[in-house]
From TrEMBL, chains A, B:
Keywords: Fatty acid metabolism, Ligase, Lipid metabolism. The lineage of its organism: Bacteria, Pseudomonadati, Pseudomonadota, Alphaproteobacteria, Rhodobacterales. The keyword tRNA-binding does not apply. This is AMP-binding protein. Signal peptide: none annotated. Transmembrane segments: none annotated. It comes from the Bacteria. Belongs to the ATP-dependent AMP-binding enzyme family. Residues 455-529 form the AMP-binding enzyme C-terminal domain.
Length: 542, 542
């Protein structure tokens, strides 16, 4: 250990030690780039000086409404300015941000409200009924509602709650912020669907958010003053930490409420968007856009894509359109992308399928990850670099979550042996790049959203006619994958595909509802375990 | 404070907490970029895989020679591979690196050997006699000598000591490294001349080195795989932390032993150098190079310049040659550059003197600095943004030193009020950019080297004929500034300019020796204090 024989007077002081937090990025941006555009949403356009003042308003208004340090503030918002502001305003008063997926069903939202114990929720008028119904179904005390209306999108305030702009009006644009005293303090909770039905609350800390944002600048080959378009929902891993990253590089955050081809092309052409992240489905949306929706632009747009490897056909068509696509991989537990298929100069000559094969791999650790490899979970030793031996993708480093909220047991289990276990099976190729072989966890990824097949199975099994049910991924050209249910009916019972789909939809969010139901006897092992592998093979042929 | 009501299971673990250290950058580079060129020196060329193996050799060989965690290992080396390797190899076995300025005089080197308590010194054959004489003059135990010969430069081993390559040969290329358990552990000591004669040992920690390197990537608009030329001596603030930075971005470090126009142009043209740092004198060297030494190249070289603001005449001539110059400012106490005259798009149209005036300012905080401003040291409040009100440049943040070695008193003094006090007087311009008005500390900067005028005065005052002496900076076209001595002789005594210069040179390093001596009665205040301000004015007219 590098302690000098005499370390007297060399302790931490206020001058030389500041807990790492992304809040620092915004304060610096307001000093260095006060006149630079921080945020754009349609006709709304704010400089960094204005942005910082609004964050002070939000932080002080939250305090005035009784929110205290360590309290959870939830949001149910699309990618609109209040969502971007909450990423700074909530931690700036010591609060912990819980961005909830707007696509979830009432029951799950109610569960999250209860589990996280949110004291307040900022909710878009579009999702107000969802939030209100969820509050009604809660076991605990309902949060205060602040309604974010959106005139530009034709979403008028209901009149039933205080509005976000009324809240902001009550705040002080000069209010001081609360700063973390310890960089390990919590900054946000992101609920993720795991293998079990109930989502787990992944807790992030200030240190991780800071280091992840700084490291991704390097991974993304980003220089000063980028223009970033919010396609990845900010409720997914806090928008992959990109909202926190922008002030670090004096960048402009362009909010995009509806993820459609026209507004995306418009933002690229009119605002000069240089970077965005999104699932491969977004790339297909751009490729298949109507001619009237497409726009000309003369710069290269850097794209991080994740959720599934970008298919060769997509890469071949999107890259000549002016997009440079980099495949990244990560999980809610790693603050979003933490592995990157880092491009090497020696591959510059590759074309077509060869190029696509290189690009479709998951890749290597980003700078804030200490070690990211494929290991045998029994021996915790790295598998051979042979492209064949399977192991589990593991992470160790400062970009790994703090843990699961109120679940020390699952946290300890996921960190066994000093590494975060992703549950994803992969191989290491000869050059050390990770390539996923199979997902060990029973997850279906549809349009970039994770779906727990166990959750879907639980709902369908609740139908009176169903004896046994297994849900697997069925490949889908548009969504990547969609849930497909294999069902054994009870003796003497009957049910149609339409009936079961409608039944599931009553409880499940639309994206989780099976798109296909197959009635048959399920294949089982000798011990009675359903052989999902066979069903996955079958689903591919449907 | 952002602690959730229930933080059980959310503590630091091996999976999610790793002390920040630049050692991580090299391990990751060897995994991600093993085939990439890490280091070039003439005919020597090593990949990251080879570079990492040599670091393991060095770390294990140091251990075998009895060096222990917390021991200081010194170097007296130009910018050659052993110096770059020591930056990783010494901390990789828990040692603390002390790079000593090769231009110092024997007495000062002896003082540093004693003060830092170096157990070993890696010394270039060119500076071996200096080191040996210094060891002879030490009060304490002399360090083990390891001689770095350099055949390429015609510097043969003396045969009197173990050579560096013999040491490396004894090491294990697969040896494990020692990792810091606490990111606050010391990584290096850099001696700086202050206002008093004896240099102070500025201690850096692993955390600061990591954050500084990461933040400078952003400041320098650096993307993956840069080619960095070592012009700034690695013994100045560890080469402004750039050696540590290179593996983070998979960059190539090109070693440059002699800072002359021809090797610099050759490196730019042949190795494709993209970045270097250096004092304005280096830029003048390039401008004034002989035609035969100049080379054509077709890319832009990014230059960080510091030590003095780049003069307008220099900027006007160097920029059309293919160099983009950014003025940076910092001190040994801030790990080198920590303030940057960050360029803004709105200045793109500026030309000539207007452009130079904007570029010559010190600028704004780099990302790893929390706050960098100009304050009234009495009230510790920021001065007005009026370009007129003077105050002292202050820093607070993770890029501020740990403190002065074995000097808790000076450390506490320099951190008074929670900020590091630079001693430099400046104003804040309307846009918040810092511009230095005057240097409060009695420092002369000659060719990028700091000279304490008090030290020079002390030596001259030792001459038997001298009654009183004051040393100030005299502007110099080549060196920026040179020391100029004003001397009052004792009644009835005589001495010539040549005599005093020769007398000073016996003790002082060449760059510290006055280039001009003026005999006159020194101007004094009513209390007898020498009015240096007047002498500085006079020196400008000489």
């Amino acid at each position: 250990m590098g302690w000098l024989p005499d370390e007297s007077g060399l302790e931490k002081t206020a001058a030389n030690y500041v807990p790492l937090t992304p809040l620092s990025f915004l304060v610096r941006a307001a000093q260095v780039f006060p006149e630079q555009t921080a945020l754009v949403y349609g006709e709304t356009r704010r400089t960094y000086a204005e942005h910082r003042a609004r964050i002070s308003r939000l932080a002080s208004a939250l305090r005035d409404k009784g929110i205290k340090s360590g309290d959870v503030v939830a949001t149910i918002l699309p990618n609109v300015p209040p969502q971007a502001e909450a990423h700074f305003g909530v931690p700036a008063m010591g609060g912990v941000l819980n961005t909830i997926n707007t696509r979830l069903d009432v029951d799950t939202v109610a569960y999250i409200f209860d589990h996280a114990g949110a004291k307040m929720v900022l909710v878009d008028s579009q999702f107000l009924e969802l939030a209100e119904e969820a509050a009604d179904r809660m076991e605990g005390t309902a949060p205060i509602f602040i309604e974010c209306s959106d005139d530009q999108a034709g979403r008028k305030a209901s009149g039933r709650h205080m509005t976000y702009e009324e809240l902001m009006e009550s705040g002080d644009p000069e209010a001081a912020w609360d700063w973390p005293e310890d960089e390990w303090e919590s900054i946000s909770i992101n609920y993720t669907s795991g293998t079990t039905g109930r989502p787990k609350g992944v807790v992030y800390h200030h240190r991780g958010a800071y280091l992840n944002a700084m490291g991704q600048v390097i991974s993304w080959r980003m220089v000063l003053n980028p223009v970033y378009l919010t396609i990845v929902p900010l409720f997914h891993c806090n928008g992959w930490c990109h909202t926190w990253m922008m002030p670090l590089v004096g960048g402009t955050l362009v909010c995009c409420r509806d993820i459609q081809a026209k507004p995306i092309f418009d933002a690229i052409a009119d605002e000069g968007v240089t970077h965005f992240g999104g699932a491969p489905i977004v790339l297909n949306t751009l490729i298949n856009a109507k001619d009237g929706d497409k726009r000309e632009f003369d710069h290269i747009v850097e794209v991080f894509t994740a959720g599934a490897p970008p298919p060769p056909s997509t890469l071949k068509r999107i890259e000549p359109m002016g997009f440079n696509v980099t495949h990244v991989y990560g999980l809610t537990e790693t603050y979003g992308p933490a592995t990157e298929c880092t491009w090497k100069p020696m591959w510059d000559g590759l074309e077509g399928d060869e190029r696509a094969a290189v690009k479709a791999r998951q890749g290597v650790a980003m700078p804030f990850i200490e070690n990211n490899t494929v290991m045998d979970p029994e021996t915790m030793s790295e598998v051979a670099h042979d492209g064949e031996t399977q192991g589990e993708i593991m992470y160790r480093g400062n970009g790994v979550m703090k843990g699961y909220y109120k679940d020390p047991e699952k946290t300890a289990e996921s960190f066994e042996g000093g590494y975060y276990h992703t549950g994803d099976l992969a191989v290491l190729e000869k050059d050390g790049y990770i390539r996923i072989a199979d997902r060990a966890k029973d997850i279906i990824i549809s349009g970039g959203e994770n779906i727990s097949s166990v959750e879907v199975e639980g709902v369908i099994a609740g139908h009176e006619a169903v004896s046994l049910c297994a849900v697997v991924a069925k490949p889908d050209e548009k969504w990547g994958e969609v849930p497909c249910a294999f069902v054994e009916l009870k003796d003497g019972c009957e049910a149609t595909e339409e009936e079961l789909i409608a039944f599931a939809r009553k409880t499940l969010a639309g994206f989780k509802t099976p798109k296909k139901v197959v009635f048959k006897e399920l294949p089982k092992t000798s011990t009675g375990k359903i052989q999902k592998f066979e069903l996955r093979q079958e689903a591919k042929t449907l």
